[in-house]
Amino acid sequence: MHYIVYKRLRQHGKMTTSTRTLLSISISIVLSSCTTDISVTNYIDIKNPFTLTIYKLDKSTGLTTTEQSEIQPTTKKFTKFVDWCKNNNKDWESSPASFIGQFTMSQGDFGLLYVNNGVVIHFLDKEGIPRQYTKTVKEGEFNFLFIE
Length: 148
Description:
Helix content: 25-40%
Shape: globular
Number of strands: 8
Order of helices and strands: HHEEEHEEEEE
Strand order of the largest sheet: 1-4-8-7-6-5-2-3
Distance between the termini: 51 Å
C-alpha cells in the first residue's frame, strides 16, 4: 500500500523531501512493530517424539546431506527443547520467505528451523491456516541438542 501511495505521488510530481521522509518513517514503523506473541507449546505434542534433522554441506560434492534422529519425550534434549518453546513466546515476526537452515526439529505440522542467528517456526493454526514466524536467538542457544 505504501508503495502505491509513493508511486502515485511521484507520478503527480508531488513527492517533496518531507513527504518522502514521512513515508519512509511510516514504513519503518509499520515494519518494525509487526511482532507478535505465540505460545509455541500450543502447536507441539509433549507426548510424541520430535525428529531432529541436521543438514551438512559436503564440500567435495557441493551437495547437502542429512542426518536424522528421534528425540524421545523421556530425554533431556526433549525437555530442554520444550522449555525453550515455553520461554520464547515473545517477539515473533511473520515471514512469508523460504529458508534453508542448519537443522530442524519437526513433529506433525510443527517445525522449527535454525538459520544462523535465528529460528523459523511453521505450523497450522487452530483454523488449519499455515503460519510461519521468525525470531532472533543467541548463538549456541540450541547446543543442548548436540551434546550426548
